[in-house]
Design a protein that fits this description.
This protein is α+β, with helices and mostly antiparallel strands. The chain is built from 10 helices and 10 strands. The structure holds iron/sulfur cluster (SF4) (3 copies).
C-alpha cells in the first residue's frame, strides 16, 4: 500500500485528534442486531466447512491481507504474528477467518457456538484505539479501517472476547515506522458493512438459512425487534440469553437451552482461546484528562512531525533523482 502526501496529512490529523480528544465514549444502540439460537445449530455436520464460515471467507476473500515478505520483527518484540501460511485454518479467529464454530459437550449434549465480533454498544476497541482506526457505525457494527490501523493490537487487549486478530507485514506501519510502531493490521468481522449499508443481511446469515431454515440459527434485523424476539423466546421457551447485558449490551444475542454459566465453564475447562465470560463489565471509561491528553498529543504530534519530515525529505530526494535522470 503506497501512501500519498494527501493521505499522510489526513492520517496525521486523525491520529492527533484521536490522541487529543479520544474516541466517542457514549453507548450507541445501532440499527441492527443478530440473534444466534444455539438450540438450532448442529455445527454443519457433514459439511467440510460450516456454511457460515465458508460464506464469510468467500465474501471477504478480497479483503484478506497479502503480506510483504520477509516480515521483520519490530522493537521491542522478537516475534511477529503471521497467519498467511495458515489461511485454511477454520477452527479459530485469524486475519483470514472472521467467524468460527466452537463445540462443547455439556451433560452429554453437544453445543455448537458460532463466534464472531459481538458489535458492542459501547465498544472498548473503538474507544481505546490510539490511532482512531475503529469506528462504530450507525448500523451498530464496529469497523476497522485497514488503511489507518498500525496493528498495535490495543483493540484486542481491551476487547473482553479478544476478537481482533493481527497480520504482520501489511499496512501503513511499513511506510511510517516499520521497526518501532504497530506491526501489522488488525482484522475481524465488520458485520458485512457494505451489505448491511445497502439493507442486505450478512453473508453468514444467508448461508446458514439455506441449511437451518427461516427460523434457523441466525435472525438478523432491526435491533428492537431482535431484542423483543429474544426476550419472548426466553420467557416462552425457558432459554438463557447472552449478549444483552455483557459489556453494557451488544448487537449480538445468543440463546441457549443450557445456561451460559455452564457454557462458559465448559469453554474454560477445554482451555479454549476464545471464552464466553458471563460477567463482563464495560469498565474502560475514557475520562477526559487534559494533562494526560496534552502529554500524549505532544508526543504523537512530535512523532508525526518527525516522520512527516523524513517522509517528505525521502520523497523530495527521489523527485530530485528523477529530475536529474530527465
Ligand atoms: S451455518 Fe448455521 S448450522 Fe452451520 S455451523 Fe454455521 S450457524 Fe451452525
Ligand atoms: S466484541 Fe470486541 S472487537 Fe467486537 S465490538 Fe466488542 S470490544 Fe470491539
Ligand atoms: S457478518 Fe459478515 S463479516 Fe461478520 S462473520 Fe458474518 S459474513 Fe463474516
Amino acid at each position: 500500500m503506497k501512501i500519498s502526501r494527501r493521505n499522510f496529512f489526513i492520517l496525521a490529523s486523525t491520529i492527533s485528534a484521536s490522541f487529543l480528544f479520544g474516541n466517542k465514549v457514549e453507548a450507541v444502540e445501532g440499527k441492527y442486531a443478530t440473534l444466534v439460537d444455539l438450540t438450532k445449530c448442529d455445527g454443519c455436520k457433514g459439511e467440510s466447512v460450516p456454511l457460515c464460515v465458508k460464506a464469510c471467507r468467500d465474501y471477504n476473500a478480497n479483503r484478506f491481507p497479502n503480506p510483504e515478505k520477509p516480515i521483520l520483527p519490530y522493537w521491542p518484540r522478537k516475534t511477529y504474528e503471521d497467519w498467511s501460511d495458515k489461511r485454511d485454518k477454520i477452527d479459530t479467529l485469524t486475519p483470514y477467518n472472521w467467524i468460527f464454530v466452537q463445540k462443547v459437550n455439556i451433560q452429554g449434549k453437544e453445543i455448537f457456538i458460532p463466534r464472531r465480533c459481538m458489535h458492542c454498544d459501547n465498544p472498548p476497541c473503538v474507544r481505546e484505539c490510539p490511532f482512531g482506526a475503529l469506528t462504530k457505525q450507525p448500523e451498530g457494527n464496529s469497523v476497522i479501517n485497514d488503511k489507518i490501523c498500525f496493528g498495535g493490537a490495543k483493540c484486542r487487549d481491551v476487547c473482553p472476547w479478544h476478537i481482533p486478530q493481527r497480520q504482520a507485514g501489511v499496512g501503513i506501519y511499513l511506510q511510517i515506522l516499520p521497526k518501532y510502531a504497530g506491526g501489522g493490521v488488525m482484522y475481524k468481522c465488520d458485520l458485512c458493512k457494505d451489505k448491511i449499508r445497502k439493507g442486505e443481511e450478512p453473508a453468514c446469515v444467508t448461508a446458514c438459512r439455506s441449511r437451518s431454515g427461516k427460523e434457523g440459527v441466525f435472525t438478523f434485523g432491526i435491533r428492537d425487534e431482535i431484542y423483543a424476539l429474544a426476550y419472548k423466546k426466553v420467557r416462552e421457551e425457558g432459554l438463557f440469553i447472552y449478549g444483552d447485558k455483557q459489556n453494557g449490551g451488544t448487537s449480538t444475542l445468543y440463546l441457549s437451552a443450557v445456561s451460559f454459566e455452564l457454557i462458559s465453564k465448559a469453554l474454560q475447562d477445554k482451555k479454549e482461546r476464545f471464552l464466553m465470560p458471563v460477567h463482563v463489565e464495560n469498565k474502560i471509561i475514557s475520562k477526559f484528562n487534559p494533562i494526560g491528553k496534552i502529554v500524549l498529543a505532544s508526543g504523537a504530534i512530535s512523532m508525526i512531525g518527525a516522520t512527516l519530515a523524513a517522509f517528505l525529505s525521502k520523497k523530495e530526494k527521489k523527485e530530485a533523482c528523477e529530475d536529474e535522470k530527465d
